[in-house]
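dumping this here before i forget
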Amino acid sequence: MNQTENIKSYCTHLRLSYIQQRLSSIILKAQEEQPTYIDFLSDVLKMESVLREENTRSKRVKMSHIPTRHDLDEYDFNFVSGISERQLNELRQLAWLEQAYNIVLMGPSGTGKTYIAAGLIYDAIKAGKKGYLFTMQELITCLRTKDISTAAMQTYSKIMHADLLAIDDIMMFPVKKEDSSAFFNLINSLHEKISLIITTNKAPTEWAETLDDEVLASALLDRLLYKCEVIKLSGTSYRMENRQTIFNLNQ
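structure:
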């Protein structure tokens, strides 16, 4: 076995997959540039580290359930009022995440609540955190089936080990009594351990009606709003302003 094959074997044993995949080009570059031993070793290990981080980040973005459009660098402040560029930039610094603060995004449909939530999750993932976005209905389905479904239990485990969880469209639909209790227990378990982002088009005063339980709604709000920034968005629906039709396809 020659030295190249030896190195590949060591890479397999040490799980240095990116070095192994690019070994020929690494050797060729070293022969051309003739770096010092320490520079060569540093560059190779740096490449492995960077590519691993990129791969991990890519996997976390894919697992996060965030929509395709999520880059807050492209956020359009012309359509919505309620949050300034300075405030959004401050949120993007993620200091609140380290202190387990929550964010509630309130406003009518189309005012960018989900977009902001997804963008903050994306920023958190870029910072090395674990973040997920689910609708309230998806969470309730997970809680209802986690004891009988492997996939649901895996999702539940991810949530319990997250740094940031966004719950989209909270209280949009009526919730059954048993589901309300399970949802409260989830929030109670996560309280002050991770940060939550809530998007809703209903005022907190309306939540009791959706849950059909004023006491439970009050206890839920108590936990969500304890350390929380409430942002009220208003403006024209971005989707309606940019509505697409079939006939546009022929233009």
